Structure formats: structure tokens, C-alpha cells
Design the sequence.
């Protein structure tokens, strides 16, 4: 922390705008910036910031993350030029070419992995997607990080082009930029595709709101039950036990842990306690659940 504060002091920043996600607090970083002598700090904060923020911005819940960030920038005095529409944009002049073997532009990219399991496509489903697309005549490229080589090899099989572990973020941008579309869960490459203007087929698990976290301003097809009651993140849930409606259910025969509260059939509410300490839900009990009004 001392080294970071010293580095911020050496940079001699005139102004800082702290961009956070809706569930993150900017105040710890604001404290470091104040300690480093930054004179003006802007951030979105539901918590009272005291003197840590010069511009405390508030936004409604459910706003798409890019619009949330842009509203903060505007509140800090950095407004989009007249006539410019908001959107994600990534410069492509420094993007490397796709690796040899992918062929000309227009292939389809399937990215099965994710740092969070609940947002990843089940391997069996991803492999089936690759087989069906290849059988329909499409060239399919399967991408993944260095620790996902086994996953991408399994998903690509003999039908797809396996690039697992062969791409960093820059190389992945080069592959996605020349794709006809990207098939992916709600994870980073979906937003990379949106910044490159590449259509997204979104296997979006309803652990977070799609309108807030989905690909922004790019042609998107969302697969799955958008109305599934799983929009509230929570502690790791117990196994789903094969509930057919659960969009995270692995239909190959084994369940996976999901991060929502909606699919916990074994979870039962505790009986409500009355003011006398007895169960108000106990059958046959005639005791009132609240103290009677004695006037």
C-alpha cells in the first residue's frame, strides 16, 4: 500500500475518476488517492464518502455497466462530444492476425470457459454446438486460456479448430475481430466481441441481470430461459439435483453448483417464531403470532 501511494504521488495526478462495478466500493481507492494528494476525486458511491470524494455520483439500479461509467464521467465533467453515440470500441490497428489454420475471416468462435463456473457453458453442450455447426458447413474455432487446454480439446474434438492456450488477450482480440460471430457465456470475450462489433450468441446464465451485464450495443441472440427466477446472486448453492428448468443444469447426467438462490429445493424456511417463543406455524397452535393490544 505504501508503494502504491508513493507511485501515485510521483505521477502527480490532477484528477481521478474511479470506475467500479455496482457491487464495489470506491472508497478504499479514494482513501489512497487522497493520501497521495490527488485534489479532485469522482466516483459512484452509495455509502457516505465524507471528504474522500469531491463528486459523489448516484445512479439507478439496473443501468448497463457502460452507461453507468459514462454517467460518472459526465458528472465529473467529461461529456461525450455532440452527436457521438455511447458504445464499446476497440482500436483494431494493433490487433494481430489470426493464427495460421483458421482460414479467411468469417469463421465462428466458441469460447466455452469462464473464470466462474456458473457463467461457463457445460463442456458437453459446447462440444455439441461445435459438432452441429461444423456439420452445417461452418468453420468453428475454439478458444481458451493456458489452463483450459483440456477443455478446449474436449470441446473442439475432431470438428473444430482447437486454439486453447495459444492466445493471450491481444491474440484473442485478433481472432474475434475476424469472426462472423462468437458463441460464449456471460464472460469477458462477450464484451470483447461487443467492442469489436462482432455479433454474440450469448449462453447467458441468469445469475445477474442480462440488461446490466449483457453484450452492449451489438447484435445479440440470447439462448436460455430469460425469465428463469435466478436473478439474485447469493452464496454458492447446493446441487441443483437435475431440476429441468435450471439453465445451469448439466443434462449429461451430473449437476453443477450454481450461484443463485432460486434452485435450492432442499432449502426450507424455518418456522416463524411468535412473541412467546413458540412456533407460530405449528399446527393446532391457537396462540397469537403477535402480542394482543390490551387497552
Sequence:
Amino acid at each position: 500500500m505504501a508503494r502504491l501511494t508513493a507511485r501515485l504521488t510521483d505521477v502527480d495526478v490532477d484528477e481521478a475518476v474511479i470506475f467500479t462495478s455496482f457491487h464495489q466500493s470506491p472508497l478504499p481507492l479514494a482513501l489512497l488517492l487522497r493520501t497521495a494528494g490527488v485534489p479532485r476525486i469522482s466516483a459512484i458511491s452509495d455509502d457516505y464518502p465524507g471528504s474522500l470524494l469531491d463528486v459523489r455520483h448516484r445512479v439507478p439500479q439496473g443501468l448497463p455497466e457502460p452507461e453507468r461509467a459514462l454517467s460518472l464521467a459526465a458528472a465529473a465533467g467529461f461529456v461525450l462530444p455532440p452527436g457521438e453515440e455511447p458504445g464499446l470500441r476497440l482500436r483494431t490497428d494493433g490487433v494481430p492476425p489470426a493464427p495460421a489454420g483458421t482460414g479467411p475471416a468469417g469463421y465462428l468462435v466458441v469460447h466455452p470457459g469462464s473464470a466462474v463456473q456458473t457463467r461457463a457453458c457445460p463442456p458437453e453442450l459446447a462440444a455439441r454446438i461445435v459438432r452441429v455447426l461444423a456439420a452445417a458447413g461452418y468453420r468453428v474455432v475454439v478458444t481458451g486460456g493456458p489452463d483450459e487446454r483440456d477443455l478446449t480439446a474436449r470441446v473442439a474434438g475432431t470438428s473444430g479448430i482447437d486454439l486453447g492456450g495459444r492466445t493471450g488477450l491481444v491474440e484473442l482480440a485478433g481472432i474475434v475481430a475476424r469472426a462472423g460471430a462468437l458463441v460464449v457465456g456471460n464472460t469477458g470475450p462477450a464484451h470483447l466481441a461487443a467492442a469489436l462489433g462482432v455479433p454474440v450468441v450469448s449462453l447467458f446464465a441468469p445469475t445477474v441481470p442480462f440488461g446490466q451485464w449483457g453484450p452492449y450495443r451489438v447484435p445479440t441472440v440470447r439462448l436460455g430461459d430469460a425469465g428463469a427466477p435466478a436473478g439474485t446472486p447469493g452464496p454458492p448453492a447446493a446441487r441443483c439435483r437435475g431440476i429441468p428448468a435450471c439453465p445451469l443444469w448439466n443434462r449429461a447426467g451430473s449437476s453443477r453448483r450454481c450461484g443463485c438462490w432460486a434452485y435450492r429445493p432442499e432449502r426450507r424456511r424455518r418456522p416463524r417464531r411468535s412473541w412467546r417463543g413458540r412456533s407460530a406455524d405449528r399446527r393446532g397452535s391457537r396462540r397469537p403470532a403477535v402480542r394482543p393490544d390490551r387497552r
In short: The chain has a mean pLDDT of 80. The chain is about 25% helix and 10% strand. The CA atoms of residues 64 and 212 lie 4 Å apart. Residues 2-75 form one domain.
